[in-house]
Design goal:
It comes from Propionispira arboris. With about 170 residues, the protein is of the alpha+beta class. It is built from 4 helices and 5 strands, in the order βαβαβαββα. It has a 5-stranded antiparallel beta sheet with strand order 1-3-5-4-2, with helices on both faces.
Length: about 170
């Protein structure tokens, strides 16, 4: 079965310091190149300062500083880097401006220096219009995955694995 994978990368402490480290990691020149780095509501080369500024404006320096998502394409997908970058930008705009979670700053980078082409998305947890902190629960995550699958499908790329009943079971 051909599927793409979209997952949340969880850190114990998504602090501003870790945000800085993540930005450095996803923009690493050995994994990507300048043409494959993009920002929505943020200048990619000022992302840390701009995301911290948004947090300070709303007095939200405590708590999780960011969400980190990774989208990996199936190895059987026919990958054209310029088309895949277009897909990544559409997903970045969706994450930044969707009705599920609000209006956010999103930094994205396509990593091509591995066997599997993939995107990293870093999203500021603070809504830049209201200052509200994002609450991403399973229903919101599943809705995000459904919309991202629609975007992928429109480019004839493999869609994200559908969730199963086991995903809804609680421990």
């Amino acid at each position: 079965m051909i599927v793409s994978v979209f997952k949340v990368i969880s850190n114990e402490n998504n602090t501003p310091e870790i945000l800085y480290d993540k930005i450095i990691y996803i923009m690493n020149h050995s994994a990507t190149q300048l043409d494959y780095i993009y920002g929505v509501n943020v200048n990619p080369f000022m992302a840390y300062k701009e995301m911290i500024f948004a947090k300070k404006v709303f007095g939200k320096m405590q708590g999780n500083a960011f969400l980190h998502f990774v989208l990996s394409f199936d190895n059987e997908d026919k990958i054209n880097f310029s088309t895949i970058m277009e897909v990544g930008k559409k997903i970045g705009y969706f994450l930044a401006y969707n009705n599920i979670v609000g209006s956010h700053q999103v930094l994205l980078a396509m990593h091509t220096g591995t066997d599997n082409v993939h995107f990293h998305f870093l999203m500021n947890t603070i809504d830049i219009k209201s200052g509200a902190r994002i609450d991403l629960w399973k229903p919101e995550l599943y809705a995000m995955k459904d919309r991202i699958s629609e975007i992928l499908q429109s480019y004839d790329l493999s869609t994200i694995r559908k969730y199963t009943l086991a995903d809804f079971k609680t421990a």
